[in-house]
Design a protein that fits this description.
By secondary structure, the chain is α/β, with parallel strands linked by helices. About 30% of the residues lie in helices and about 25% in strands. The radius of gyration is 18 Å and the shape is globular. Bound molecules: zinc ion.
Length: about 260
């Protein structure tokens, strides 16, 4: 046991959160994007690649990001569980290369805080020359992999229903809307006209904050980009289920839109 582990007993440990993914003969491919130290503690950003069965054409590449805010744990649990679901039902990922990042803010996760230990909101640090290691590592992956879609899982403690930011390509709302409809079976939608200070329509916001995790600024055409927000005060299991339903349906919907040759 390391000194820091002794000192911090009782506290959450990011490696423990990811330990269900450490399986021999796992059907996903793990990769450590990079490591860094904060005081005596070592941290890492982990990526898990799941390649589904071949679809009709080229693989679509989608990034799924959770735990960018360290206290929003439902997304972290959902990402871990989604990988296991893919293992037992690979059909969900037919035609997809899914790059899953279950814990993008390991220090914030351990501290139970939205911000990382450096005091930064990592979801305001993208593509602005950030020196935060988590952001730099993710930016490099996002730039290299050129995703067809990005889905971020978040939670909002000021919302009693779920909602989403639909950014990027115009098609994003057509990917998001059927998925949101499916989530209504699990938890209510936030239908307010103003959510999080943005104009919203049926739980969809078409704008975002500067510095939110998204595709690299030079990328054109834009991929679909969705930030899915569960109501943070709902039962954790309900939020996890909402995330899973959303992921399944968004992937299915994008596949269908592409199959009918939707101009994206
Ligand atoms: Zn968040």
């Amino acid at each position: 046991m390391t000194h820091s582990a002794t000192k911090r007993t009782g506290r959450k440990n990011f490696r423990e959160a990811l330990s269900p993914l450490q399986k021999t003969k796992a059907p996903w491919l793990p990769a450590t994007l990079g490591t860094w130290s904060v005081g005596l503690d070592d941290y890492a950003l982990e990526q898990y690649l799941f390649v589904g069965p071949r679809g009709g054409g080229d693989y679509f590449r989608v990034g799924i990001f959770a735990g960018v805010h360290g206290d929003e744990t439902a997304g972290v649990l959902a990402a871990v569980r989604f990988l296991h679901e893919l293992a037992s039902k690979p059909e969900i990922a037919r035609g997809y290369e899914l790059y899953i990042y279950p814990l993008c803010n390991p220090t914030g996760y351990e501290d139970g805080t939205r911000h990382s230990r450096s005091g930064r909101d990592l979801n305001r640090e993208f593509w602005v020359g950030s020196r935060e290691p988590e952001v730099a590592l993710l930016e490099r992956q996002i730039r290299t992999l050129r995703f067809d879609g990005l889905i971020s899982l978040h939670a909002d403690d000021e919302s009693s229903g779920f909602y989403a930011f639909a950014l990027g390509a115009q098609v994003t709302q057509y990917v998001a809307e059927p998925a949101l409809r499916a989530v209504e079976q699990v938890v209510p939608r936030n239908c307010s006209e103003i959510i999080d200070n943005f104009t919203a329509q049926n739980g969809l916001i078409r704008k975002g904050y500067p510095g939110m995790l998204c595709a690299a600024p030079e990328v054109s055409p834009r991929p679909f980009e969705i930030v899915f927000e569960t109501p943070h005060l709902a039962e954790i299991e309900t939020q996890v289920e909402a995330n899973l339903v959303f992921l399944r349906h968004a992937l299915e919907q994008y596949q269908q839109l592409r199959a009918v040759g939707q101009d994206l």
